[in-house]
Amino acid sequence: MAFGWRKKRYLSAVLLSKFTAQMPHPDGSFGSTFAERPLVVFMLGSKSNHPLGAFDPVNLKLAKYFSKMLQELRETAENLGYLGSSAWTSAEGSAANEVMSVMYFQDFEPLHKYAHGPLHIQAVKYWSSVVKDYPMCPYIIETYVVPPSQWDNIYENSRPPASFPVRTAQGDGETEWTSPVVNARKGFSPQYGRENTVKLLERL
């Protein structure tokens, strides 16, 4: 691959262009204004300081709760204003077992509502039952509410960011996931968004 004799498979999901990620309208179209809507960034992380690391039983149970919550968010995305997420692993510690998910929401209120929902409350109750006698599994929460025109992002020769939930083109009330990619090579060009990334997303 390094000499061009074989296909560069690491580039198969990369968009070889300069682009930005914008929030599409409910129908999948884009507006003409950059960062025209508010954005909530929610970061949830955890790390195991147990000798067993990621295989610590408490850490494993918390991970299961977290996986269930992410699945629930995706299944109810439109009602909760959930826009997508990405997962990260820290390289700072020698064990490299600190993980974090960066999640995006349309508004703070749906996020606050979800925090008081049954599944999250169940996870919080479990955490509360073990944290006093079990300090080896910390968690980290950060929430940022960003007003319109106060957020920015730029990507070049990168994988597209997380997809966003929108209404289907058929207008039947169903939800589908679409790319937030907008061409940024010559300023803000929202017409680049949905159609021009379909083939790329099919390869992901």
Provide structural commentary.
There is one protein chain. By secondary structure, the protein is α+β, with helices and mostly antiparallel strands. A 4-stranded antiparallel β-sheet has the order 3-4-2-5. The protein has a 3-stranded antiparallel β-sheet with strand order 6-1-9, with no helix packed on it. A two-stranded antiparallel sheet has the order 7-8. The protein has helices at 57-75, 77-80, 108-115, 118-130, 198-202, and strands at residues 15-21, 39-47, 82-89, 98-105, 139-146, 155-158, 164-167, 175-178, 181-183. The protein is globular.
List the helices and strands and how they pair.
Blueprint: E1 15-21, E2 39-47, H1 57-75, H2 77-80, E3 82-89, E4 98-105, H3 108-115, H4 118-130, E5 139-146, E6 155-158, E7 164-167, E8 175-178, E9 181-183, H5 198-202
Antiparallel strand pairs: 1-6, 1-9, 2-4, 2-5, 3-4, 7-8
Helix pairs in contact: 1-4
Q: Helix count?
A: 5
Mean pLDDT: 79
Structural class: alpha+beta
**CATH architecture annotation of the largest domain:** 2-Layer Sandwich
From the alpha-carbon coordinates, what is the Rg to the nearest angstrom? Answer: 19 Å
Measured by DSSP, the beta-strand proportion falls in 25-35%
| Bulk shape | globular
Please mark out the parts with pLDDT under 50 across 5 or more consecutive residues, or reply none: 190-204
Instruction: Report the CATH topology name of the largest domain.
Output: Alpha-Beta Plaits
Helical residues, percent = 10-25%
What top-tier CATH class of the largest domain fits best?
A: Alpha Beta
InterPro entries: Dimeric_a/b-barrel (IPR011008), Monooxy_af470 (IPR025444)
